[in-house]
Sequence to fold (215 residues):
Amino acid sequence: MTGKTGRGERADATRELILVTAERLFAEHGVFAVSNRQVSEAAGQGNNAAVGYHFGTKTDLVRAIVRKHALPVEQLRLRMVIEAWDSSDVRDWVACLVRPIADHLAELGSPTWYARFAAQAMTDPGLRAVVVTETLDSTSLRRIIQGLDECLPDLPAEVRAERGDMARQLMVHMCAERERALALGAATPRSSWRDAGTGLIDAIVGLWLAPVTRP
Fold:
């Protein structure tokens, strides 16, 4: 039993090392600019097929990275959703979207790579579906969408869809931009992820409540 346990622990440690290494390389160089072989080598694996052995294809590896972060974000989000359950305030529901991601990135310490990785994955036609499936199909997000729908002003369907896309782009790419600046040691508009989350919430609430110019 001890031998099996030891092998299992070593395999788990290897998987985690590969995940962390892949996330960093994908964030810094792009998902398709980095081969599985390069990930294996950078993770110090003598077997260049280690990624395939532990995860399968590159898409499977991307899915594993997303899942690693999706669970803690979902746990944070569920707690916020429970607190906001009966709210009719747009800001409360926007906070449920933004705050868990910002808080998760803060909890990871420094440096982080996930925001940049996610931004690249979301803009790739082949990988976007993986991210959407693993992160957007959750109980908490369905309740947030319902909560927003119930308290947003009466917007034309096409405007609501457009602003939903805008809000998503702001969340994904502003987090990635802050992470990039932190990695480079560059100045950032906000001093912490908490404050950055507040700024995003302000902007997205303003976006949802902005007037609509009729044609």
